[in-house]
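Provenance and format

Records in this collection were gathered into a single text stream. Each protein contributes a sequence line and a token line. The two records reproduced below are adjacent in the stream.
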Amino acid sequence: MQPGAAAAMEPAPGPQEKYQLITRNLQEVLGEEKLMSILKERELKIYWGTATTGKPHVAYFVPMSKIADFLKAGCEVTILFADLHAYLDNMKAPWELLELRTRYYEHVIKAMLESIGVPLEKLRFVRGTDYQLSKEYTLDVYRLSSVVTQHDAKKAGAEVVKQVEHPLLSGLLYPGLQALDEEYLKVDAQFGGVDQRKIFTFAEKYLPSLGYAKRVHLMNPMVPGLTGSKMSSSEEDSKIDLLDRKEDVKKKLKKAFCEPGNVENNGVLSFIKHVLFPLKSEFVVLREEKWGGNKTYTAYEALEKDFAEQVVHPGDLKNSVEVALNKLLDPIREKFNCPELKKLSSAAYPTPSKAKPAEKGTTKNSEPEDVIPSRLDIRVGKVISVEKHPDADSLYVEKIDVGEAEPRTVVSGLVHFVPKEQLQDRLVVLLCNLKPQKMRGVESQGMVLCASSVGEPRQVEPLDPPAGCCAGERVYVEGYEGGEPDEELKPKKKVFEKLQADFRVSEDCVAQWKQRNFLTKLGTVSCKSLRGGSIS
């Protein structure tokens, strides 16, 4: 018998039963009266959106489990792959990888749903760019921007949009787009984590100003990761990847925070509560006979009580979760074992190069540092003024705007290669986190990156950001967009020098590191003519 056949034979749940299914295990519901009113008249239309950024991990089973509840309650469910949001959120997904990551998300989310028995034919799958680039939607973005304050937009995205020292305008647009999605997806309710609450209240405040209805908002609690904090794609030890091998799952669970008797911030218990129990309505703790044998729990509260009273040992709990989790992951691993999806996975999430072996003299317990391009703080700069150095004929002293409160003073040896008038008001590429140093009595606060010819006579050309870039925009190397740069590069560690050894100009005049392009959100960084040259 198919999974849906038995369900079809069961009597349809009434409004109160539907309400209980929809709201169980949620932390908060905004609009409870409206929710019940809709359920008394018809089926609820609801959507869940996910920005296609970092790789989905096992915590994604939490919303998947709730989606199963929504379907049991007869809801019409839409899943939004928010590709445009992924780009707007401080370019967590670069434009060049956006399509690949969206395809990866589509495959992996559908595989997760299938692994927990959710019939895909009952769901509607939509990409943000399917409708967010339309004339009507774009006009509503402008309409919304005319009534939303900068304060409210920043506040709404504070828990969701990546917070940086110099925020981009795109991050302020993010909450408005998420609010408009409710109208354009024609839903009654939006479902998300409690970290979305400020965006949900933002939507409730501003959608009516455009003549659109206020929606119901359903919020899941934030599930602790294995370290006891929020499970995050960017914190490797806090999460289990959906494609992790069984031995990796065992290793990560073994290290997981699961203190005897402690039920607070316990990621192992939370996973049982929010994923395993709703799916099976029971959980089996596997134990050797000498410790009492296996015990089946049909209520989560009883399991939590036994764990708090140390009747259940953390080791037995972890082993039991490992078995149950691998049953969920096995069909996903099998699906992604085909060459096509392996290729998609590696293309969507290029693996950063591993750190070189520790140098001679490294102690046994010390960790070698990753020497990767994301450690460099490279930005687009605009040259505001150029003057000859008072004490050096070959040096310019420039004032360069890099999006900070004051322009930086930069000394560069370009007098013999670039006329002063060609630098004035030009966009350049500036390395911003070198330790400031005095050059003939003038402190230089950065380095203008330039292409140099290989042969003689020597030629030098400043690197060119794509047209349309603004001062302060980040420049990154393809595949290394996610890391945080060092606050200041330590001269003794020679991080820049090690990376710079692999800087080259391609035959297409594109700046590269190990054949990976230098990029901004608008495209590639290049030079005018020095093909095959070095960069310094």
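Adjacent record:
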Amino acid sequence: MACMKLGSKSEAFLRDGQTWVCTAGLPSDIVIEVGEMSFHLHKFPLLSRSGLLEKLIEDLYSGEDGQSCILQLHDIPGGAKTFELIAKFCYGVKIEVSALNVVSLRCAAEHLQMTEAYGDGNLIKQTEDFLDEVFGNWGDSIRALETCEEVLPHAEEVHVVSRCIDSIAVKACSDPSLFGWPVSNSAHKPEGAELWNGICTESKTRNVIEDWWFEDVSFLSLPLYKRLIVAVESKGMNPEGIAGSLMFYAKRYLPGLSFKENTNHHNSASTSLAPSEADQRVLLEEIVGLLPNKKEVILTNFLLRLLQTAMSLHASPSCRENLEKRIGAQLDHATLDDLLIPNMGYTVETLYDIDCVQRILDHFMSVDQAADEPPSPCIVEEEAEERQVVDGGSLPLTPVTMVAKLVDGYLAEVAPDVNLKLPKFQSLAAVIPEFARPLDDGIYRAIDIYLKAHPWLTDLEREQLCRLMNCQKLSLEACTHAAQNERLPLRVIVQVLFFEQLRLRTSIAGWFYVSNNTENSRGNLAITKNDIQTNLAENEKTMEMRVAELEKECLSMKQEIGKMSKSKSGWNICKKLGFKRSQPKSVDC
């Protein structure tokens, strides 16, 4: 840390309790009170350096020999500690100026009008010269800006705050190696680097990590930090750097966001206890307002944690809406665990905040639809076929497909909640367009879990729920499970069996086609016609067994219905199920 020594005389002051006495030999003729401290001094050394003290002494001095006057300077910047240094400066006593006291000295000198008109090398010029040296060093600039909090109004008047922020902003936007390595406690000298006259001579310096300045500026108060972020943005800082600093700052002061405290900072005394809930709310709203608008510069999981914290702190609706829109714009980068936001409303109906996820999903769809027109189902099916394993890996999925998978997983997680109403479940699932799901296994699993947790649903409600999935897009494993699922409506089971048989016949037809082409080319094919016919017979036998089981269930249901009253309404129910009197064992598909 840079320092400047002024004065040449030895110590000439003694402190007795709350009193400072000059031991120059002559009796003091003026007493200056600053706060609770009293300084017994002599008027001539003071008025020869300060225009304000000269005026006050002339106005208050009685002119009678032996009688001292009393001046009160309670409003002097920096208080008694700073005035002690100023008094020593006026007497020519040795003092040391550093980055920790230069701001208060500069403000006090301005207040006391210690200009060059009252002696060459007066305190205003001395402190200004030293501030130029302070602004050339990163660590000293940070320390000086932190001390501005103590004398903020006066520091603003002499433009120390703006100059200090500008100095820090320029350095934050520059390569730290240009200032000599390291520039702060967070920066590290690269291996093999040498410094010659303050310049890094390494021929191949490593890429400088942009987060080297995050920790140092995180100890600033919110108003000063906010001004610094605006300054670095105006200096050309990239959005990634600004976003990284904002995330670091938020993690330090918001308990809801994880952060490991570093106790080795240059000014550990500035680390205070966790701010109050009201202060946290203000800080969070300010941080959200400063976030860059560029997409994906902020981690999606961090935005979701910010949103949860905003809900717990009851942040403003505009703040929460801002976060929801940001999350929606990059929802394809979210994970299921981050999306499980606990319900923090006053009327807690469901375990998780379904409405919040609905709004986020709606915003994602609006952004996605604005970016690209939805492709036709045929194109999607072709792309899904092309998205096979290539060179040991699969091609990347589209954002809407990734979100569809995420939503299906989310629905499966919230489905066991008995308080989750059917319309809300349907509304969330229906937002995803049909073309976005290459397979409907995920939505089928969510529907099955919901049916299991809500056994009181009517047949009509079950059918409405099952319309969310397309039986043609179920995998073989899902079809096998659905065909034996007693929770599904009868009509859905029949559809599953029908499409499974249709798919089987299509596959077998393809096998025959391959077999014929292979025979024409006299190739060696392991699967023969006899093998195909055998497989066909086995699959048809399996299908017949499933249909027989289904017919037994239908017969059992009709027997139960026959025991009911022979009313017209009862017969209408049978007709709706597709039963016929003349053929009791048939199933109308």
